[in-house]
Amino acid sequence: MGRAYSTIAFDPAKCDGCGDCMTACAQAKTGTDDIARSRIQIYGRDGAADKTFELALCRQCADPKCVTVCPAGALDKDGTSGVIGWDASKCVDCLLCTVGCAYAGIALDEGTGHVAKCDTCDGNPACVPACPKGALKHITTANIYNEVGDWEDLFAPGLAGCQGCNTELLMRHTLRRVGPDTVLATPPGCVPGMGSVGFNGTTGTKVPVFHPLLTNTAAMLAGIKRQYKRVGRDVQALAIAGDGGASDVGFQSLSGAAERGEQMLFMVVDNEGYMNTGMQRSSCTPYGAWTSTTPVGEATRGKTQDAKNLPLIMVNHRCAYVATASTAYMEDLYDKLDKAIAASKTGFAYLHVYSPCTTGWRFPSNLNMEVARKAVETNFVMLWEYTPQAGLHFTKPVDDPLPVTDYLKAMGRFRHLSPEQVEHIQKKVVENQKFVERMTEHAHVG
Amino acid sequence: MTTATLEKAAAAEAQRKQKVILAEGNEAAALGVALARPDMVSVYPITPQSSLVEHLAKLIADGRMDADIVDAEGEHSVLSVLQGGALAGARTYTATCGPGLAFMFEPYFRTPGMRLPIVLTIVTRDGITPQSVWGGHQDAMTVREAGWIQVYCESVQEVLDTTVMAFKIAEHHDVMLPVNVCLDGNYLSYGASRVEMPDQADVDEFMGEKDVNWHVALDPLRPMAVDPLTGGTTGKGPQTFVRYRKGQCAGMQNALRVIEEVHADWAKRIGRSFAPLVEEYRLDDAEFAIMTLGSMSGAAKDAVDEARDAGRKVGLIKIKTFSPFPVEALMKALGKVKALGVIDRSVGFRWNCGPMYQETLGVLYRLGRFIPSMSFIGGLAGADITIPHVHRVIAETEALLNGTAAPTEPVWLNEKD
Questions:
Q1: pLDDT of res. B160
Q2: Which of A137, B103, B136, B277 is 20 to 30 A off residue A390, Cα-Cα?
Q3: What keywords appear on the UniProt entry (chain A) (predicted)?
């Protein structure tokens, strides 16, 4: 497989034009405070009603025009880091590269008389931590691709998920990481619904896989794991279950297995309802959401109760590991997968992944990651992890959350909400955030 | 010496080695389980089964039984844990009854379809409601169409011996079906009796090699998808589903032969015989018969003896194997009599009679000649079926011989107790 590279991402919505990034860059690269010499440039947009900002920075393009137009071979893309490097000994100062680049990513440095461009400070860019608003992010998710991209995808191609299904993305990543010495339980829901267990003699999975009942996933896995332990074989027990089966009818067996410390990794794919059977309400469905059993009518408009917080309930089982995750934060997810796999060797590991459902939540599938990210950025969901030793802490704390409407307006299932309902949801978001924060404060007490 | 003589001598020797103990039915069941050496037992307590799982827990705690014990949070998970264990190759066991069996029903009615040879003792209990914690066959009868093999025991000794045999029957490659050993709540569960304990080495030889998941497994060394969606209207769906269901039915019919073979093998090696399917008691020269199931058969045999002493030509037919229903063996027995009274310890609500009576009607039809018969229901919710109760059954069945029309209503034996 090819390589993927890290990149610096810019969120104009968060940028206030302070210029701290430029100062940091100038200091790092020129030893001066002259922001005109910074490799990163922030420009105010002329004529905008609200002052907005744009970024001029090298994108480290895969097909870099600056490299193509350079007559001297002074620019070259490094195969390992992906950074486009500039070689002073070859440069003829023709400045053709500055014309070739559409992003103003390479420009003349008046201080040296040569062009200058971002080299990502050898993978540790000075501008990113300098930004007080979090408008710059160094995206290193590519490392995951480089590390596991060549590992076998243990699901067959052509699973029959909905177009753009986030759950399919999640399960492929998960099983690839967990590996082939696994017995996989996929209780009724979207995961087997798309054909992972199979249909009339065919299967969509390359590891042993089965349909438990909706109700007994954790119990069946416990029996499997115990027998392999008894005969001295190291077999990973893995469940990829929906939120309905886990939080509603399957909760008893989940709770029982957690209490007994059964050695397994139990992943809940939380798409906030029974999406496979036609988008009915589960106890994980949020307040106000339309589902096919909480329709919008004259008397009621969407679900009238708040969601059950299943991962917090699992914390109260004192599991070996409990975490929440999101596919919009893949590094965080992978880090938690690793920890969960390790914890499942000695106890019950529980991973709760928020997984937007393009079909059931009513949004275009190209917005999957955007919806998933907004859920976190508004604190609608929170990413944290827990171990009995270290307690609970946030892994992606959001101290300055966006208003919850930024999340709600992204999808059709909340379209009908009244101002009062939105207010209720916003109030609950704040309340939930405080609740979990209190748990982090008392992490080492309990 | 002939082979038969040699076998007789071996059986006598096996029996000589057996320690005689005093045990209740629940304890005898636990001891039988220990002799069969399961890998995994999963338990949840319920009256009148509780002392059975307590005995198992103690046997394991004392190191007298090497099995993983899973104290699950309810019967539903109990059986689910065992399904997982069996799919990974474990010999597995549990026990339950009544409401516990009802709660277990979802994995229970899936087990035969997965062809998992799990052994589950039903310490039979009457159904609720009315609220009751006492014996009766209503629980086991309610699930009789779920595809499990069900055998009923008459005595504490038969409980112990049948428990061991149940594993052998379940795991037979021509069967591969789960087995319920039904032992009567209260009467057998708490009834202390003299029991002979088979020698472990003899039982080990009887059991042979364990081979539980050769046909279906969740094992990374033999990767397969277990229980994908099957059926529907397209492709090979319909014929695939039929193939599985027909196979399950064939396994059930094969069980009739295997149950007989296993009982014969047990008799040869351990020295004790039990009628495997249907027991005929003083039937050969009988004009009419009464039919029984489980522990009531003891009192019923005493009553038949007394009636014989009084010159009445009555015999007894006892069913041991209720599922699969032993149609052939029963036809043979019923062919010998001219009237029949069937005693049930449970109710068949749909036909307003006992369930065993209702099943027997089908066999009587196949016999091709009219035999007047009637249904008696007794022993519900722990009530006694005593010798006087059975005398009433004998008298009313005998009356059928004289051409009196058979009643369509059942006789409730404890109606005035």
A1: 98
A2: A137
A3: Oxidoreductase
